[in-house]
Design a protein that fits this description.
This protein folds into two domains: 234 residues, Vaccinia Virus protein VP39 (Rossmann fold, 3-Layer(aba) Sandwich), CATH 3.40.50.150; 74 residues, no CATH class. By secondary structure, the protein is of the alpha/beta class. The chain is 38% helix and 26% strand. The protein has eleven helices and 13 strands. Strands 1-4-3-2-5-6-13-12 form an eight-stranded mixed beta sheet, with helices on both faces. It is globular. Bound molecules: S-adenosylmethionine.
Amino acid sequence: MKPPGPAARASVLPVADRGGTVPEDAVVRDCLRRTPPRLPPWLGYDAVGSELFEQITELPTYYLTRVERGLLERHSPEIAELLACGRIAELGSGSAKKTRLLLESCVRLRATTYLPIDVDRGMLRSSGAALCAELDRLEVTGLWGRYEAGLDWLRTHPGEPLAVAFLGSSFGNATRGERDALLGEIARTLGPGEGFLVSADMDKDREALETCYNDPAGHSAFADFRLNYLTQLNRRYGSAFVLDDFVPEACYDADTSTVEGRLRARADRTVPVPGLGLTLRIPRGHFLNVGYSVKFSVQRLTREVGAHGFSLQAQWRDSETPYGIFLFRRRET
Ligand SMILES: C[S@@+](CC[C@H](N)C(=O)[O-])C[C@H]1O[C@@H](n2cnc3c(N)ncnc32)[C@H](O)[C@@H]1O
């Protein structure tokens, strides 16, 4: 029998409405009630936000994608061997352009099922189709929803040995509490001996980080990406934020080793958000948070992940830019 063609090997399943996860509206309401008010990372990724993120990855000053791609180009064969799995799930896969390097090495070893989890259905469709067109022995089932729902789906659909990947240093986009909750979910999804592959940006000086997370002259990808969060709030919840009322910026906090994406109010603003039953009051000079990027040391990462039953097995670090990909192994319980 003829093997199935690329189109038949790529599909997308909605997992967003499975029980057990906090509803989206409740998450956004809770984030907006914090001080400073925060917009959860996933809210910014509609088709426009995803396209803007792709533009960010191409900015000459945004080293993260370039460095991670280099590590995957050099080390994917070794990573694939160590992962030794027939299924790879990825949290926040986006365009999966870098993941393709790893998947190419995986399918050389064995037929592989890739299970990207992302809130952007369009990205899941296009990346799955592109990967299957390029790689034989690959099947892609995109899980359309938030991380927790995707991991829940994996737990209820056992199969070949599994690995969970979290690339793009997106692990650092979550707060400490969110990271702990997510690591707990990942640990519950993986069996003893299975791998968790996570990339992390390491701490650096303020100038390097603020240069990376702000637009260089002549570009506006970061600014547009941050302002798109307000567009999403207006569209989903009927608020009337005026984008020009806010200045997008990124600031590094050395005490917490975190770069914070902000929208700073040019003047006092009171904005009702009818769909969430609340009103935001933002005084002049105050800001909304539109993204954390926590910078790690190896010790901090190993401690956080290790607390959830994982041991560090291998790491691949860039020789010039402090950035790494880390393979943790789920311990026997
Ligand atoms: C910073 S981009 C990284 C994309 C890709 N991994 C890379 O390295 O280029 C984050 C991706 O994660 C997705 N995302 C963010 N938060 C999410 C969540 N809670 N659940 C599912 N997807 C999420 C976004 O839609 C986006 O595609």
